[in-house]
């Protein structure tokens, strides 16, 4: 214990703590990198399974939906399903884990603003789910021919969805008091909404009352917009879809702002 | 000189309704080691956590390095490093990664050379790439200190840094704290080892049930509140205290061969006059001893006086 220590000098913090954002972002991605094999192999296997079950078994009987081969038709829905669950899981775990281990004290006592905190955590979670979404797209391309009619819209929708649901996951992680609660939202809400939201079928294929009911499922709009960016066809208006996503994003942002203002489940 | 920390009428009422701090006023001077003492539940951690931004104050104002910890939290927090009471570490991270993370989180540009020297100073250099979960408890505590110092803070909070720490590490920590102080870092620590406060602190504050019942220079505190005793060993035991010495409030101990004179430190006594009176009564003295009460005794006295 003889090396020199620092001599404290007043340090004027910058208006935007970019080192802080980067530290959180890198830290979160490093955590993902530690489980890289799982993170990458799992979606590849799951996607392949979906193709075997839905694509081959069902697709053999049902050749196309609205002119798109069934196997290709389900790709956007599959990507969305993964995007939802991965974004929520990554972001909720990212903020819940330090709460659980107690290391959150450091975040709370650091000179990072709410916006910077969210950029770090949500940015990292969204990055990871976009990466996984891309892997799924790549894997799918091995099974079925894929066209992307509106690539720019596709990328924007991908990023927007990843960001929105990562933000939502961040809220879940702060709200959660235990591990079960972390799992409950994706399992109990997102997966059913996605399955019922036309991930694997067109809602036009549903009989009347179910079709109308589906229009109350927000996920329908997301999946439809995304599928439109691939194949051009859509069950509902693309404008409505984007409005829906942006509305949900704004709602999540408002909740996050409220959380930081009140310290809800973060501070005493 | 501007105080390192200035706390004004600070009140904390937890959601449970429990009032942990009842209007604290305190100034910590730049460059001093300030020890916060008090029994379990007195509010020491609450006070520290409010200054550091982990707990929201209910009323009152706190400035750190002259900046309001709520309104100018960025500037205030940049100046502060905290080692919390609880050991909380990222078990799967390496020592290096976690220290680097802390520096970045506090907004400082990377500086591997400084971090290397910091790990060196904490005898962590050879653990640089070890995962934190593979370290012993004492090592983890060093890591926590390294994290708290990674952004070169002006003020360091140590909430019970030596709880559950062996003698050697405790010595190391004291040495480290002194060195930091010598470099100009202001240090606020809490401890249950009074001996520690006695050895380390420049000033001492005693917190009891949410109120600061005393803030004093350590020396003054020991001098003012400490009792002194003069013990006189006698050649021939006495049966009783002679009438001629009744005014002094002496005590007879140990089968009558020891006379104890207790006085408080503010009163200067004339030892030679006392000895002369004893000689006049033909009481022979073989040995004498003086002792001063420790901070521990003072502390126990203070806290029990209030209950
Ligand atoms: N989150 C909380 N909600 C309600 N009461 C709390 C909370 N945290 C602490 N308290 C109460 O506030 C009081 C002060 O607690 P604090 O942890 O500040 O004490 P302390 O002096 O640090 O004690 P110790 O020496 O045991 O660490 C205690 O009565 C404690 O029970
Ligand atoms: Mg405490």
Characteristics of this structure?
heterodimer, A: about 270 residues, mainly alpha, two-stranded antiparallel sheet, B: alpha/beta, Rossmann fold, Alpha-Beta Plaits, 6-stranded mixed sheet, 4-stranded antiparallel sheet, elongated, binds adenosine-5'-triphosphate, binds magnesium ion
Strand and helix map with partners:
The complex is a heterodimer of chains A (268) and B (307).
Chain A: H1 18-34, H2 36-58, E1 64-65, E2 68-69, H3 70-101, H4 104-108, H5 114-143, H6 151-175, H7 179-195, H8 208-214, H9 218-231, H10 238-262
Antiparallel strand pairs in A: 1-2
Helix pairs in contact in A: 1-5, 2-3, 2-5, 3-5, 3-6, 3-7, 3-9, 5-6, 6-9, 6-10, 9-10
Chain B: E1 5-13, E2 19-28, E3 33-37, H1 44-52, E4 59-64, E5 67-68, H2 73-78, E6 80-83, H3 95-105, H4 112-121, H5 137-149, E7 155-159, H6 167-183, E8 186-190, H7 194-200, E9 203-208, E10 211-217, H8 218-225, E11 227-234, E12 251-253, E13 258-264, H9 271-280, E14 285-292, H10 295-306
Helix pairs in contact in B: 3-5
Bound molecules: adenosine-5'-triphosphate and magnesium ion.
Magnesium ion is lined by residues 44-45, 85, 159 of chain B.
